[in-house]
Amino acid sequence: MGIEDLRAHVADELARTRRRSAVLTDSVDDEDLVRQHSPLMSPLVWDLAHVGSQEELWLVRDVGGAEAIRPDIDDLYDAFKHARKDRPELPLLGPEEAREYVGTVRDKVFDLLDRTPLEGRRLVDGAFAFGMIVQHEQQHDETMLATHQLRRGAPVLTDEAPPRAADADSLPAEVLVRGGTFVMGTSTEPWALDNERPAHEVHVDDFWIDTTPVTNGDYQRFMADGGYDRPELWSADGWAHRLHAKLRAPRFWEHDGQRWLRRRFGHVEPVPADEPVVHVSFHEAQAYANWIGKRLPTEQEWEKAARHDPRTGRSLRYPWGDGDPGPEHANLGQRHLRPAPRGAYPEGEAPCGARQLIGDVWEWTSTDFLPYPGFSAFPYREYSEVFFGPDYKVLRGGSFGTDPAACRGTFRNWDYPIRRQIFSGFRCARTPRPEELG
Ligand SMILES: [Fe+2]
Fold it and tell me: CA–CA separation, 109 vs 130, rounded Å?
């Protein structure tokens, strides 16, 4: 892409992203914007001004070298200084002020986009800092969508039902991925974040992986078989959490005496059996995998299934190839506010035959969030490095709430194993028996 095309692309991405942020914050009234809908989340008005604050810090001040617009609010919107539960007590900008602030910042950013050389300095090469800010806002759009899911009251967001695949019933339950090395991570994707880098060779043994994520119907069989009452299926930490939090079903499910219902952005509806299960924790995913005699995939296995093309030996950008995600490939970008039914998006299929690796639900892996060999923090330690360690599990693939700009075959998400307000699901894997390999 030439420099002028790159500038036009950045401008489009910034504008498109802001339209989504506006939908998420204009669809509720001011009282709703400043309220805390769950101690796990910030008030929506915090997310909005925080997006502007990060954009001011990185683009206006650092890349643009311009004077600060609102240095007085830096501290309020520093995610490391105030826990989410404490944010409503801060003297935050009100809804009108927050909208005006993000608009002022954005005007300055469009000015500087026209005159900033997009090369010669690592922060601006390939428009990296702009891409980082687009992804940051998109990540907050997904967080704000999770806040909408936690909010009580009538529906305010609209969506249409996702597509269904004609061949869903004939798909195999699992596909075999042959052992060998593949290239994991990336050194070339211009907007990849530090934790996705660098590209490096990894050996993975033969494994089977589920063709699609585990569905609500599958998960209800685990529940009906006493899955929540059998400690032997759970890890020690998982069982302790299951008891403490009194878990008995995915979050947002309730039983009406006859059947399971779910609350989805204000709609209460029967749980659809053929959709991937969502709003489950790592511990629940692991207990299910034990129940069915499988395990969660490692992060390495997940990425090999998603990217390795055995015909060429190359790692693809996405399961379907190197082209950017389109609506025919994956359920991304908040077009559909639910996962697509099992087997959807045949055009998004990976070379191994697995589907729905990108979009629909974030997939828990069994792997702790750790740096790749050769990792170096960029542009700041707080993006990834401070989170590395055994406290966080890696999730892969993005959800229906994730924007294409914030999701690649190499993209890594991480969270605590107890979390389930996020759009999290899973698929299982297993090691083949010798007679299966032939
Ligand atoms: Fe943030």
Answer: 9
